Amino acid sequence: MSKQSIFSIVLLLVLGITGYLWYGYFQSAPAQDTTQSQNTSLTGIGRFNNIQLDTSLFQDPLFLSLTLPPLIPQPDVTPGRVNPFLPF
Predict the structure, then answer these.
(1) Residue 10 half-sphere exposure, CB side, CA atoms within 13 Å?
(2) How far apart are CA 53 and CA 62, in angstroms?
(3) Helices (H), the chain
(4) What are 39-65's pLDDT values in tens digits?
(5) Contact between 79 and 73 (Cβ < 8 Å)
(6) pTM of this structure
């Protein structure tokens, strides 16, 4: 046998074993309990009621000194056809 055919056989064996182990890993994944995940979601929603926002940023002198950038004038352009894909 040539080196190329031996390499091909070894490569196929490695790929086959890897595929078999990977397939077995996903088949043996534990089933999740839906009631526990629902309770966790409801607990997470309850935490939104306890959020305290710090609005002192809006009274900061640096924030109050910010201004809007000047508006850039738009050039006067003649609009094209309403539907450019219609035939003439």
Answers:
(1) 7
(2) 19
(3) 3-27, 34-46, 61-64
(4) 566 667 777 777 888 899 899 999 999
(5) no
(6) 0.32
